[in-house]
Design a protein that fits this description.
about 375 residues; alpha+beta; Arc Repressor Mutant, subunit A; 4 domains; 6-stranded antiparallel β-sheet; 3-stranded antiparallel β-sheet
């Protein structure tokens, strides 16, 4: 079996699902510009994924040193010896007791999966899959991971990555505390672990590399804590000696003359009185009266949740079964949606499968179709 093409024509999730379903063994090579990723599969299970050896080994060594599992000097010595003997770094470290086998396995497993999750976000590039009777695991291997498990996690990450990237424009920003206390009972364990690693000098990337649960959950925890006012992000500068130094943000205090402040206030008050008594227009009254009621706000929130959660569950079902479900009950039975699926007004959604797509309709607040208040959801 041999597959070759572009990721624009055949997505990587489809390739992995096909290889996993047919329990194939072989090498999947992925190329995008100057980057090459090699994925090894055995009986449809992922056993390895990495960029070029030099790049992977550099990243692995940096994380081991950062975690204190090997010193820089010992790592340098290990690299010289394994190069001299012509052995791959990972088996050499494991055999020579340079690093605890448990620590090495944990970091390698994490980096292999992180490599796979990153490449699953590619939208362009080329792929080649070559079927083999066995694959070369001399450079290293991880405990076999099913392609379905990988795809489930990848879908979760892809759905939320845009928001994380929007809040964290660069992983090389320094993370600092803002002083606001956090309610530990209402914060996820991952966020608490991230919070313990914040020392005012580490970047988001450095914090993520110290976490065992992966970079996505680390970055998401950081952005959540930033959004809650617990953490803040800042850039760093480098000194002339090349040493990283926190960049001090200047705070400029701008004070207006007291007479100017009073004059501006007077203009606003005079304008308001003029509008009220000349035209019967009260801007403050209109602003407060146009605010939505609490009930309307709750309904709007429920509708936004439905518009994101239900299509996400339907797309995940499509990814796993290569078709949309016959009814919404199948989503619940597959564990993709909890409980009965109701619209924001407590009525069942009307679902219709249409060949390669679907139509999801809510009658709206009045329960009647065709009145203009009904809600339609379809694949974007």
């Amino acid at each position: 079996m041999a597959l070759e093409g572009t990721l624009q024509d055949f997505a990587l999730v489809d390739i992995l699902q096909l290889v996993g379903m047919q329990r194939k063994t072989g090498t999947l090579s992925l190329n995008r510009r100057d980057e090459t990723i090699t994925v090894l599969l055995q009986d449809g299970m992922v056993v390895w994924a990495s960029p070029e050896s030099a790049v992977f080994e550099k990243t692995l060594g940096r994380i081991l040193v950062r975690r204190g599992q090997i010193s820089s000097e010992r790592l340098k010595e290990a690299r010289q010896l394994h190069t001299r003997k012509g052995q791959p770094l990972i088996p050499f470290l494991a055999a020579g007791q340079w690093v605890s086998p448990q620590d090495l396995e944990r970091v390698v497993q994490r980096e292999v999966l992180e490599t796979l999750y990153r490449v699953l976000r590619w939208r362009e590039g080329k792929y080649t899959f070559v079927s083999q009777t066995e694959v070369d695991l001399s450079k290293g291997q991880i405990s076999p991971v099913g392609t379905e498990t990988v795809l489930l996690e990848a879908v979760r990450q892809m759905d939320e990555w845009p928001l994380v990237e929007q809040r964290l424009p660069s992983p090389d920003l320094v993370v600092r505390r803002k002083g606001r206390l956090v309610d530990r009972e209402k914060v996820a364990p991952e966020a608490l672990e991230v919070l313990e690693l914040v020392d005012g000098t580490r970047t988001a990337r450095e914090i993520a590399e110290l976490c065992d649960f992966g970079e996505f959950d680390a970055y998401k925890s950081i952005t959540d804590l930033v959004g809650n006012g617990v953490l803040e992000l800042d850039r760093v500068a480098e000194s002339a000696a090349g040493v990283r130094v926190p960049k001090i943000r200047a705070r400029v205090s701008l004070r207006l003359p007291s007479w100017l402040s009073a004059a501006m206030l007077g203009v606003v008050l005079m304008g308001t009185l003029f509008l009220r008594y000349s035209f019967g227009y009260d801007p403050f009254y209109l602003r407060s009266s146009s605010s939505p009621s609490p009930q309307a706000a709750i309904q709007a929130w429920k509708l936004n949740v439905a518009k994101s959660e239900i299509p996400r569950a339907l797309d995940l079902y499509l990814l796993l079964h290569r078709r949309y479900p016959d009814n919404l009950t199948q989503l619940r039975d597959a564990g993709l949606l909890p409980g009965t699926v109701l619209d924001p007004w407590g009525r069942p959604w009307l679902y219709e499968q249409q060949q390669s797509t679907y139509r999801l309709v809510s009658p709206g607040p009045d329960g009647r179709m065709g009145t203009g208040d009904d809600v339609n959801i379809s694949p974007s």
